């Protein structure tokens, strides 16, 4: 059984890291990073099997995670550092010159844990599907490729090209998540380009869809992953887990608004945010 | 003067198909993907022999590029095959981020490149692909000249670890380079030794350049012809060495002047060995429908144009 309280403590520390990194860089994307924190925590600190010491970009014999929504890089970097891929003090270099922690994930800096660059939206799902097909070709059983896509990102046509490919080729070792927070840069997803009927879209593209009503609840997320694995085994179809999340989750003045998609807090705002997020593992 | 024997016209895309099949037999990690152009790009023999290693992506090139990038991570060697127009301009951002920046081992097999695509017209006749691809860090750009060389280049691309843009064409053209040659990425191939003018040609225009040199010889002009099959990385030494001797240059390619082989060589020479240069390439305008040979003439790419360009270059020495 998963220790949900411990996982929540890790999520709180990651949220602190995100706020401190973005403030330190005076740039970055806190809103989506905070809404996706719980699923990434559930993956790296409970669900996924990996070995940080023997990590390589091949992902051979391991579960793999791809962040298609690359702007949520502070979340990924914090999770990787807290999982032991690199020293947590390196988080202080986020978005600074000569850092391995580029604004959006990159491979050419040699940062362990990054399989492919992402940030130009819509591409990560295809790359993750390719990795999953590669695992099938290698006969790797019981290993999964996870990928996180934004709801705004799902406006990209490539997402639907990838969706069709994965269902046609019965890619049933990929588990995808949508961070369904309903917000994007210019407003709500409905205001920008509706209708936001993602559930029907994924189903019509031949995927099984699991809705998590509270996408910030780690217990519910883990239950959905368990169900997804059972479904994929049984039906040979990829699964999309739609996480109903809150943009900016955990910081009251950032919650539910697109205003904090890509804005760094000022120092006073950071202090106000950190008062709401318990330091559980020690700040970097 | 060396003789060049055309062993029979063949399309370079079939050279790719033969090379892919041979590399597929050599290395079980080779996989292939297409976007509804399996037959046109000559991937059918590979698909038939290795159905588990072949992926039909449908008319969805962006996803094909990304999926190939993902496949390459655990050691697969993916070849993506489509028309050059859709393998470059249509998916430039995917090639840029998921292939070049992500340092993945994807081979982009781009058929029907250039004006000799013919009757389909300008929508499909991409003339800017060399420029687009050579601007990307981590990208090798290869444009072989005939069937045999395309086959050898395909096998070399598969053996090379890194992203490759492999450009070839649709029409049947003379097949005159050695069968089962070894293709060395980054090495220029001297076709004819000469002292008066250097003709650097790539792709289908290598044959035209050879024909031009044979005609020039009759007029007492001794042209050197060098096949620049690899445009990136460019064989700097071979080019400088030739120009040191001849002191004037013609470049010949089935591409826009902008971004092409000519500009690539001009920028090298400007920095290291300035010399007059004449471009045989297409100026700033789109193509049109017609037969390949009609279009080569109409757009100034045949051997007559190379002869005239060589004479202009000689006068500017």
Task: Explain what the structure shows.
The complex is a heterodimer of chains A (284) and B (317). Chain A has 284 residues and is of the alpha/beta class. Helices cover 40% and strands 11% of the residues of chain A. Chain A has 9 helices and 7 strands. Chain A has helices at 4-25, 30-47, 73-83, 124-137, 157-168, 189-193, 198-204, 218-235, 267-274, and strands at 64-67, 145-150, 174-180, 183-184, 187-188, 208-212, 239-244. Chain A has a 5-stranded parallel sheet with strand order 1-2-3-7-6, with helices on both faces. A two-stranded antiparallel sheet of chain A has the order 4-5. In chain A, β4 and β5 (187-188) form a beta hairpin. The radius of gyration of chain A is 17 Å and the shape is globular. The mean pLDDT of chain A is 97. Chain B is of the alpha/beta class. Chain B has 2 domains: 10-173, Rossmann fold, CATH 3.40.50.970; 189-315, Rossmann fold (3-Layer(aba) Sandwich). Chain B has a 7-stranded mixed sheet, with helices on both faces. In chain B, strands 9-11-10-13-14 form a 5-stranded mixed sheet, with helices on both faces. Chain B is globular, with a radius of gyration of 19 Å. The model of chain B has no long low-confidence stretch (mean pLDDT 98). The A-B interface holds A 57-60, 106-108, 115-120, 122-135, 137-138, 157-158, 161-162, 164-165, 168-169 and B 31, 52-53, 55, 57-58, 60, 62-76, 78, 93-94, 96-98, 101-104.
SSE arrangement:
The complex is a heterodimer of chains A (284) and B (317).
Chain A: H1 4-25, H2 30-47, E1 64-67, H3 73-83, H4 124-137, E2 145-150, H5 157-168, E3 174-180, E4 183-184, E5 187-188, H6 189-193, H7 198-204, E6 208-212, H8 218-235, E7 239-244, H9 267-274
Parallel strand pairs in A: 1-2, 2-3, 3-7, 6-7
Antiparallel strand pairs in A: 4-5
Helix pairs in contact in A: 1-2, 1-3, 1-9, 2-3, 2-8
Chain B: E1 10-11, H1 12-26, E2 30-34, H2 44-49, E3 54-56, H3 61-73, E4 77-83, H4 84-87, H5 92-101, E5 107-111, H6 129-134, E6 139-142, H7 147-159, E7 163-167, E8 172-173, E9 189-192, E10 197-201, H8 205-218, E11 223-227, E12 230-232, H9 236-246, E13 249-256, H10 261-272, E14 277-282, H11 292-298, H12 303-315
Parallel strand pairs in B: 2-3, 2-4, 4-5, 5-7, 6-7, 10-11, 10-13, 13-14
Antiparallel strand pairs in B: 1-8, 6-12, 9-11
């Amino acid at each position: 059984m998963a220790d949900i309280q411990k996982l929540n403590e890790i999520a709180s520390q990651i949220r602190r890291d995100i706020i401190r990194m973005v403030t330190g860089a005076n740039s970055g994307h806190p809103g989506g990073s905070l809404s996706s924190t719980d699923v990434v925590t559930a993956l790296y600190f409970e669900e996924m099997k990996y070995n940080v010491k023997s990590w390589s970009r091949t992902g051979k014999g391991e579960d793999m995670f791809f962040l298609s929504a690359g702007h949520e890089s502070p979340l990924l970097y914090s999770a990787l550092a807290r999982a032991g891929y690199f020293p947590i003090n390196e988080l202080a270099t986020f978005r600074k010159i000569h850092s391995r922690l580029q604004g959006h994930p990159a491979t050419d800096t040699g940062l362990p844990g990054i399989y492919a660059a992402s940030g130009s939206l819509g591409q990560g799902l295809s790359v993750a599907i390719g990795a999953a097909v590669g695992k099938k070709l290698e006969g790797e059983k019981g290993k999964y490729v996870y990928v996180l896509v934004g709801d705004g990102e799902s406006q990209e046509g490539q997402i639907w090209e990838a969706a069709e490919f994965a269902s046609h080729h019965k890619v049933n070792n990929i588990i995808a998540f949508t961070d369904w927070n309903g917000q994007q840069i210019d407003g709500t997803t409905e205001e920008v380009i509706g209708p936001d009927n993602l559930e029907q879209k994924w189903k019509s593209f031949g995927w099984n869809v699991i809705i998590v009503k509270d996408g910030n609840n780690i217990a519910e997320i883990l239950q959905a992953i368990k169900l997804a694995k059972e479904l994929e085994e049984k039906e040979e179809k990829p699964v999309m887990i739609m996480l109903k999340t809150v943009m900016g989750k955990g910081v009251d003045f950032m919650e539910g608004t697109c205003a904090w998609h890509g804005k760094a807090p000022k120092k006073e705002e950071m202090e106000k945010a950190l008062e709401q997020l318990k330091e559980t593992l020690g700040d970097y | 003067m060396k003789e060049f024997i055309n062993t029979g016209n063949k399309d370079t895309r079939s050279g790719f198909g033969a090379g892919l099949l041979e590399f597929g037999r050599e290395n079980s990690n080779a996989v292939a993907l297409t976007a509804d152009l399996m037959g046109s790009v000559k991937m059918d023999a590979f698909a038939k022999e290795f159905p588990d290693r072949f992926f039909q992506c449908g008319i969805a090139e962006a996803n094909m590029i990304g999926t190939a990038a993902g496949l390459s991570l655990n050691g697969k060697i993916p070849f993506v095959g489509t028309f050059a127009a859709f393998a470059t301009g249509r998916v430039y951002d995917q090639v840029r981020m998921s292939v070049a920046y992500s340092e993945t081992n994807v081979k982009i097999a781009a058929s029907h490149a250039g004006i000799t695509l013919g009757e389909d017209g300008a929508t499909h006749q991409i003339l800017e692909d060399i420029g687009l691809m050579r601007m990307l860090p981590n990208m090798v750009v290869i444009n072989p000249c005939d069937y045999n060389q395309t086959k050898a280049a395909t096998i070399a691309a598969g053996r090379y670890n890194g992203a490759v843009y492999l450009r070839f064409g649709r029409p049947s053209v003379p097949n005159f380079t050695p069968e089962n040659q070894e293709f060395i990425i980054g090495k220029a191939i001297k076709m004819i030794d000469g002292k008066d003018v250097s003709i650097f040609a790539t792709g289908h225009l290598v044959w035209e350049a050879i024909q031009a040199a044979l005609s020039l010889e009759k007029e007492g002009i001794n042209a050197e012809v060098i096949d620049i099959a690899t445009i990136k990385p460019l064989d700097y030494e071979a080019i400088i060495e030739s120009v040191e001797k001849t002191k004037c240059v013609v470049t010949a390619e089935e591409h826009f002047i902008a971004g092409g082989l000519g500009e690539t060589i001009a920028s090298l020479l400007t920095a290291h060995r300035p010399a007059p240069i004449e471009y045989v390439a297409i100026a700033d305008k789109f193509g049109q429908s017609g037969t390949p040979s009609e279009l080569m003439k109409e757009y100034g790419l045949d051997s007559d144009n190379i002869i005239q360009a060589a004479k202009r270059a000689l006068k500017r020495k």
